[in-house]
Specification:
β12 (about 305), α12 (about 315-325) and β13 (about 330) form a beta-alpha-beta unit. The chain has helices spanning about 15-30, 70-80, 90-95, 105-120, 135-145, 155-160, 180-185, 200-205, 240-250, 265-275, 295-300, 315-325, 335-340, 355-365, 370-385, 390-400, and strands at about 1-5, 35-40, 50, 55-60, 100-105, 125-130, 175, 190-195, 225-230, 250-255, 280-285, 305, 330, 345-350. It has 16 helices and 14 strands. By secondary structure, the protein is an alpha/beta fold. About 40% of the residues lie in helices and about 15% in strands.
Length: about 400
Amino acid sequence: MKIAHVLRRLSFADWGGTEQVVWNLAKAQRAAGAEVRLFATDALGGPAEEEREGVPIRRFHAVYPWWPMGRELKALLDRKGGNPFVPGLGRALREWAPGVIHCHAMGRIAELCIRTGERTGAKCVISLHGGAANVPAAEAADLRAPTRRRVPWGKAVELVLGWNRRVPEGADGIVCVGQDEYEAFSRRHPHVLWLPNGVDGSLFERECTIQNAQCTREGKEDKGFRVLCVARIDRQKDQMALVEALGRNPGMSLRLVGPVTQPDYKAELEARARELGVSGRLAIPGALPPGSAELAAEYHAADAFALASRHEPFGIAVLEAWAAGVPVAASTAGGLGRLLAAHPGAAIGFAPGDAAGLDAALRRIATDAEWRAAAIAAGRAAAREYGWGALAGRLDAFYGSL
């Protein structure tokens, strides 16, 4: 089987959850005998063509249809919320002629994939990686903010091209990471699969080997109770709740690891830390390569993992923390709450925005050794249920059912 995975962006230096899922599924499918290629835009950089671990990758120039379009706006849209035209992508897909075009984007990229599948006879599958069913109104407005008061010339191009497909309903199949989305789209489409995110536990179960005083347990006493959050620096992830917790918990330090998708939000976090007088206990080191020894070292150095998301389809970093043996405190937003409920005893949940609940969760992790040991064991057992090989097998069976 020839499988084309299509993404809005794929930068190995600036990684997100969607990229991580696609990359690991592609490797698992290749290991099972499929011929797999990745197609993406040049958002955030990367060579036009490369091959990694036997998987060919092609990138195409992204054209954002707004006027005026400056470098600052392009950089913002590259990171989040962009809906580009991608010249050359459709032709490349037609020339390679895959049996399955699996699109991991919405908007114009998804429409292009649907139309290409109709022209070539390929099955088109669209994955919803979060937000299609339950993005809060405030965040949706935040996504639209960068393009306000600009001319949307792309709509005129769509009229000329006759683009009118319903996305994602126009695809042959829909894959949902979140159960909320699965329930919503199952009522609107005959072929919908719920496929949770996965984890390669072996990458996080191994002992930390990076001798870096910033992220290993050496020198931990100087930092007190170490809390780690691995997530995009983004309002959706609500790292501000964790910064506020620093002000209420003088024995705590916090590391926010992840790519910065909203630079203005990072500035807000740093400014609030200065106001609270906790800047010395906050570190924002940026993105680390997925599955890397450096990322594993961050988990192994932490006393607790915290994720305070406002909404979340799944929460792949929770799986990583479980695999690494780190006690977890997480908000019960959306699919994240469902994940915690499916594995009782593996984490402490708190309502989104509940500062008292967050503090209570962190205090229990810090002080209840019996609970902590039981939670670590339950988390490791939970992580083993989400291997990429099994998930790729379910996905391939879904392709075959279309």
